[in-house]
Amino acid sequence: MEQPIIQIKGLGKEFQTTEGKVRALGDINLDIQSGEVFGIIGLSGAGKSTLVRCINFLEVPTEGEVLFEGESLGSMNPARLRRTRQSMGMIFQQFNLLAQRSVVRNICFPLELTGTPKSEAKKRAMELLKTVGLEDKAGAYPAQLSGGQKQRVAIARALATNPKVILCDEATSALDPNTTKSILGLLKEINKTMGVTVIVITHEMAVIEAICDRVAIIDKSQIAEVGKVSEIFSEPKSKIGRQLILGDAARQVKFGGSRQIRIIFDGRESTEPVISNMVLACKTPVNIMYAQTRDVGGTAMGQMIVQLPGDEAEADRALRYLETSKIPYEEVTEHDI
Amino acid sequence: MTFDAATIQMLKTGIWETFYMVFLSSLLAYVIGLPLGIVLVCTDTDGIHPMPAVQKILGTVINLLRSVPFLILLFIVLPLSKMVIGTRIGSPAMVIPLTIAAGPYVARVVESSLREIDGGVVEAAKSMGASDWQIIWKVLLPECRPSLLVGGALAVTTILSYSAMAGFVGGGGVGAIAINYGYYRYEAGLMWVSVVLLVVMVQIIQEIGMRMSRKGDKRIR
Ligand SMILES: Nc1ncnc2c1ncn2[C@@H]1O[C@H](COP(=O)(O)OP(=O)(O)OP(=O)(O)O)[C@@H](O)[C@H]1O
Ligand SMILES: [Mg+2]
Fold it and tell me: Could you tell me where the DSSP H helices lie in chain A?
């Protein structure tokens, strides 16, 4: 495999506050491959923003290191670090546009920093405005734009210096669902057409589902699990992963009596009527407690919680049927989440 | 109430002297205060270049200078005027104490304007690889322009009111006329005319500052 574009090794971050030390991150190890869309998800306060800010050294880690194209950011002199940052665009939840500059001058800003001639910068800015679909807003000021338009300008600005990576910290969290969709679509398109590596920080599963290839789940300053979105979605292993992905389903399992199982659809079985076949084959009724499927990267993923018949023999028959049909399932207990 | 030609000439000279004193002192006060204000903001713990010791010392010196009453500062500083420009009376001599009094004040006014900036914008500039200088010149100052202009009007009007006090120690200007005629000679008419002139000047400065601020502010739709 080629060298990852970003390598995070044993990274930790402690904040010194008046009330003592706050550990925001600990022992983070991640490799981000060039050209992928990588998601980082976690609950509020998990350390996501701190992590993404460590990637471009806006926050200097207290332990470990961050390598960009094999070179450690910590060992760079300030000028080299600034140049490296120009290879990593960043977009924010609050857009952070310069309010006193017009749209086109906002996009020219990072080019001004590198000393690009004005006319050249303007030309590039106009191209980018076209990419993000805002040619007609070149002369407008941020105050005259909607949230979605502001984020498009921010994306164009982040792309101005031809970065290899774009870091997005909750880039869609301030936007409505439709606008979110279009911004995510734009990011995906940029990833595909320009080959820019995209790192997305979010607390919303939907964002990960929509565009990410791989995802890291971060919980209480640590990475809980990392993997392909399709794999983690169909079978989250960590407790936090189950909570985030199974959500309601994880909590449905309170009432009881007889045994309950969770059947996992990993994209293969969803085309066949699993439950109906099982009922017909085993001649026993099952009780569907919860079902959820979704489209992940083009295949149907999902899970269903089924209550087995009270009779042990019948229940075993149903389980054997699932085993022989190679349909993944797991038994769920009352306290399971 | 009518004035003879000599009185009118005196008032004209007074207006010119006030203008000259205030303009020159404001200019010099900004030459000193603007960089100090920038340093105060940038060296703070959450600034772009934290240097807590520098911040603390500078803040203390500014507070010290600001706590000396202007009239007392005048007496302390006028010998310096004598050394620098050869005289301790008249409008030029007043420029030095005015600048010393207004510089620290301007630093604080500038500081409070620059603190209004949204930290996220500075963060964004950093993420694009901006150096500290670039952040100051291309982000802090332009983004805070409207607030800096309002602060400017505030600073200039304060300098104007200081300049009026200079009349007590042999300074010139409209304030001196008000003091010399109203306070020492009980000529209420001339005193009131001077006061009205000062009020009008304050109004004009304030209005210019506000208009410039509003006109350049792109946050307004
Ligand atoms: N500058 C700081 N000083 C002290 N503590 C901090 C600082 N920045 C972050 N923290 C702490 O680090 C932890 C992680 O914060 P972080 O902002 O990374 O969380 P997050 O996952 O981005 O949360 P959210 O989803 O709410 O944005 C929190 O406990 C927070 O209080
Ligand atoms: Mg955050």
Answer: 48-55, 78-85, 103-113, 118-131, 147-159, 177-194, 205-211, 229-234, 239-246, 248-251, 274-282, 312-324
For residue A215, the CA-to-ligand 2 centroid distance in Å is 16
Instruction: Find the CB nearest A94 among B120, B126, B221.
Output: B120
Per residue in B126-152, pLDDT tens? Answer: 999 999 999 999 999 999 999 999 999
Note whether A39 and A106 are within 8 A (CB): no
Structure ipTM = 0.89
**Average pLDDT, integer, range B68-94:** 87
Are A174 and A185 in contact, with CB atoms under 8 Å apart?
no
* Same domain, yes or no: A131 and A208: yes
Instruction: Report the chain B residue with the minimal C-alpha distance to residue A99.
Output: B219
CATH of domain B5-215: 1.10.3720.10
- Domain enclosing residue A305, as ranges: 247-336
Quick check: B145 and A58 CB within 8 A?
A: no
Q: A292 phi and psi, to 5 degrees?
A: -155, 130
Contact A219, A43 (CB under 8 A): yes
How far apart CA B180 and CA B11 sit, in angstroms, is: 12
Could you tell me if residue A1 is inside a domain?
no
Residue A58 CA to ligand 2 center (angstroms) comes to: 14
- Helix-, strand-, coil-residue percentages of chain A, each rounded to 5: 40, 30, 35
CB contact under 8 A, B219 and A141: yes
Per residue in B83-124, pLDDT tens? 888 888 888 889 999 999 999 999 999 999 999 999 999 999
- Which atom of ligand 1 is least distant from the CA of A48? 21
Q: Which two tokens stand for residue B87?
A: 């005289």
CA distance A193 to chain B (A): 22
Spans of all domains in chain B: 5-215
Which of A11, A15, A23, A94, when mutated, tests ligand 1's pocket best, judged by the most ligand atoms within 8 Å of its CB? A15
Q: How far apart are CA B43 and CA B55, in angstroms?
A: 6
Residue pair A39/A30 in contact (Cβ under 8 Å)? The answer is no
> Is the minimum CB–CB distance between B45 and chain A shorter than 8 Å?
no
Classified as helix, coil or strand, A167 is strand
Ligand 1 pocket member A16 (CB < 6 A): no
Strands A20-32 and A6-17: antiparallel
Q: Does B216 touch chain A (CB under 8 A)?
A: yes
Q: Is A44 in the pocket of ligand 1 (CB under 6 A)?
A: yes
In this structure, what DSSP letter does residue A325 have?
A: T
